[in-house]
Amino acid sequence: MSDTTFRKAICAALEEELERDERVLFFGEDVAAAGGVFAVTPGLYERFGPGRVFDTPISELALAGAAFGSAVVGKRPVFEVMFGDFLILAMDSLVNQAAKFWYISNEQAPVPLTVRCAVGAGGRFGAIHSQTPTPWLLGVPGIKIVAPSTPADAKGLLKSAIRDDNPVVVLEHKRLYSISGPEGDGTVPIGEANVVREGSDITIVAAMRGVHDALAAAETLAGDGIEAEVIDLRTLRPIDERTVLESVAKTNRVVMYDEGPELGGWARGLLGAVAERGLEDIDDSWVIASGELPIPYSPTLEDDFLPSAERLADEIRARVKAPARA
Amino acid sequence: MSAVETATTVDAVAGDWQPTADELAGGLRTMLLLRRFEEEMQRLFLRGEIHGTVHLYIGQEAVSAGVCSALEAGDWVAATYRGHGAALAQGSDPEALAAELLGRRTGTCGGRAGSMNIVDLDHGLVGCFGIVGGSIAAATGAALGCRGGDRVAVAFFGDGATNQAYFHECLNFAKVLELPVLFVCENNLYGEFTPLAQSTAGADIAGRARVFDIPAARVDGNRWEVVAAAARAAVARMRAGEGPQFIEALTYRHLGHSKSDAGRYRPPEEVEAWLARDPIDQLRATLADDERADAIDAEVGGELTAAVERALAAPFPDPAVDRATEYAP
Q: How many CB pairs under 8 A join A and B?
């Protein structure tokens, strides 16, 4: 299959699912006539019409509520919150309505809704257009979070999200929209991580753009004789602990590499799970994430704030070459 | 607020419906069911059988009983934490509802939801929501799901909810998309303990809907037949594709906001005036058939007593047996 871009892969997933299931709706701010501010969804409105694909007011809470209510009565809504930072405006409906409904209704009906949002820093967008909302969502039972790093996974995970009978948040890192790769076909299962590079000396666990940093760091380290295994989590909730534990059992060292804040993020939580279930396998383990500050604007500040492939390689080099602890 | 016109008769509401004696009796039956149910729940709460808190609907029965009488199977309703009335008006089983408040396995939601969060999809109840404006979004969404068909959705909410983002975002959203959703504000004059005038700028809730170009009627919410007439007219317009509609129903809760509230912030003369306008007394007067009204009351009371006894006898959920899954399969 020929190569495509991340953004085109997302559009293909939407197009295929809208075609496949007439219950699927797609809506959001400027997603229809304009084709999306990140140019992800052109042509869908023209193909499926205003009954299935439509523009909405800038009303994140109403969008989430409309998705929740329509999902409960049998639709399969997909809505876009333009930047993940804005998701916080939709949180009551997403958390108190959609995520809890399956349980508190005593399983009367599922809530098959999908929300897509652009996330991630490094684009000089400043503090309110650069966050990754994972920490806000990790503590919400009933929610799933997918976080692709490649066009094929972006397509396959979005297709799975739309077919899933639970609320699924799809995180699209804005600095991945233009990358190319095979388009892939079919779905990618939610909840399964992917070992994207095998190695025996250390496990690097990452997601989204972090996977590309991890692979770059692994290439650098290979030149120093250190073979890093790289795991692309692909789903952040529920997280695939087993794949990580199996890898750590082999490498005995693990670094969790996350762009988001260290407190409340997936990285420390996953490290805790590894400590709890695989303590005997660990010679070294740590987290590389960003600090507890809003994301800055100025290029020098933002670059310093974010973790990088260089820092990842440097820290691994220093720690793996250090004498193993007794 | 006296400057704003309020419809107090059926004739004052657009539409040509006039209730028959049987329809009046049916309305009375629903209202008595709501009233007697809440009285039972009050007793059970005071006995310590119901946990947490309850928000009783006593005094406001004409609103949900009137609106739901205008709906058909397949229509959807969303309500609030003060939602027992809407559930019963939609036909929810009183025994299961009582069991839910009692935390029993046989409850409407297996004891998982409790008083404030009832869901009963089999009776068109999308849910009751503990956030005051939550029902507005749920009904707007249900209406999105109905778009293009002839089904409609109704949101019940209080005056306090008109100051939340849900209200403003969803009214605008529904109008822009011309969704078949009826917004019913049960204006009981207090947002929890705070009087409307202190919390709600302009104090004209129907006027807020008109700003969005949504047709809005302000009606006497203590008269079942007036609410029912307004709802029939609104539902007919929605089924004809005329988009969202709005009813502001002026009403009053006879009791405090919740079980911890004695309602002392309300002037006694105000309470007295509203008690004298009890919606059930008024509908009995309209029906003008005491024998029939008494018979309905006795029948409803007997059914409820038996239902509550069965609910009390039902088992609690057993965490070892009643296993939950986080996700729908």
A: 147
